[in-house]
Design brief:
The complex is a heterodimer. Chain A is an all-alpha fold. Chain A has 7 helices and no strands. Chain B is globular. The chains are: A mainly alpha, B mainly alpha.
Chain lengths: 194, 190
């Protein structure tokens, strides 16, 4: 699919970027991976500003960076279409809906959190959350271990012991595992070279 | 002023180290917000996750807005959100620049290879404390003394249903909430 150059003034372009990501963010519940297909649909299919293959690369780059996927994907799409200022426009569009919603909710929460009916509903929902999260963990574990190598399994067990039993600082665990991963690639490359 | 700075710095760390998106930020938020600074209790933290599953936007941003507003009002909410997106903004822009220059990221692949299993383990640890809180009202495995039969039954039925039907997570969460409220209203012991 050939991509079009956005033919509009810089001001209108930024407004379009802001408006588009604001709408996507406002109607994406649960966050995370749900937003990626929506961004793709808008920028690849509807606006045709980004080519399909480049979009996949951009998402991969977005996932290599820390931070919420929704945020990272909007930043990189904004950068691609409108440069650094474009990235600011899409970022602003993405953060505005949760910022407003959760700020309002925090005030309501303070008022209603001791109400018995509210407490019961939240209690029930926390069981639902546990279901969803346990399911997500099992799915992620299956994906990470799908290549049947021992390395990911060992890292996973060590990291779990380090955090749950030994209470080692999470940042330290993340940095160590990143370093081990980078070293493992160097080691594999050397093995293959022999 | 001190608390605003602390909010900013805490969420900078959450933004900087949550690789893998979605639930990856959970253990980091938990560490900063519940354990280190005591801005939320374990119960309130679970409530925030519940809310963020039903409201638009990523969990980390939702938590930042909520905790910020609860701790220091609207300025707190703004500062925490800004802190949370600042590291990704800088890093994504740098990576995007590198991508357009070199288009291949070998070292990044290695880093991700080590990171992914670690992240799953960290999320599993956070998930375990959320599960224990929901079913046994404790935070650690060794502390279990009492249990709610209702919670265990609801969890098992919901988990099996979720496994086979794969509905939108919102239905599972809202469904569990509505069912529990219903039982409470008609007087079935929970």
């Amino acid at each position: 699919m050939p991509t079009k150059k956005p033919d509009m003034s810089k001001k209108r372009l930024l407004w379009t970027l802001f408006k588009t990501t604001l709408t996507i963010s406002a109607f994406t519940f649960g966050g995370g991976y749900v937003i990626v297909p929506l961004i793709r649909k808008t920028f690849v299919e509807k606006l045709q500003w980004i080519d399909e293959h480049e979009m996949i690369d951009l998402i991969a780059v977005a996932q290599s960076s820390p931070g919420p996927i929704a945020v990272n994907s909007s930043i990189i799409v904004g950068y691609k279409v409108g440069g650094v200022i474009g990235a600011f426009a899409t970022l602003l569009g993405t953060v505005t809906p949760p910022l407003i919603t959760l700020t309002l909710l925090s005030y309501i929460y303070e008022i209603v959190k001791n109400n018995a009916y509210v407490q019961m509903t939240f209690y029930g929902m926390s069981i639902g959350v546990a279901i969803v999260i346990v399911d997500a963990v099992l799915t992620m574990a299956k994906t990470v271990l799908s290549d049947k190598k021992w390395f990911p399994l060992v890292v996973m067990i060590l990291a779990f012991v380090a955090t749950y039993i030994l209470h080692i600082n999470i940042v330290l665990i993340i940095l160590s595992c990143a370093a081990i991963g980078a070293l493992s690639i160097l080691f594999v490359a050397k093995e293959e070279a022999k | 002023m001190g608390v605003l700075l602390q909010l900013f710095w805490s969420f900078v760390q959450v933004g900087l180290f949550s690789f893998g998106g979605g639930y990856a930020s959970l253990p980091l938020i938990q560490e900063q917000v519940v354990m280190k600074n005591g801005w939320l209790t374990a119960q309130e933290f679970t409530d925030v996750i519940t809310m963020s599953q039903m409201t638009p936007g990523p969990i980390a941003l939702n938590a930042a807005s909520f905790v910020g507003a609860k701790t220091a009002g609207i300025p707190g909410s703004l500062v925490a959100t800004f802190g949370n997106v600042l590291p990704p903004l800088v890093i994504v822009l740098i990576l995007a620049w590198i991508y357009y220059r070199y288009r291949s990221l070998k070292v990044m692949k290695g880093i991700l290879y080590g990171l992914k299993p670690a992240i799953v383990a960290l999320i599993a640890s956070a998930a375990l404390s959320i599960l224990l809180l929901a079913l046994f009202n404790v935070q650690r495995l060794g502390e279990i003394s009492d249990y709610s039969l209702y919670a265990i039954i609801l969890f098992v039925i919901g988990f099996v249903f979720n496994f086979f039907r794969k509905p939108n997570p919102i239905y599972i969460i809202v469904g569990s909430g509505v069912l529990t409220l219903l039982f409470f209203v008609i007087g079935i012991p929970i």
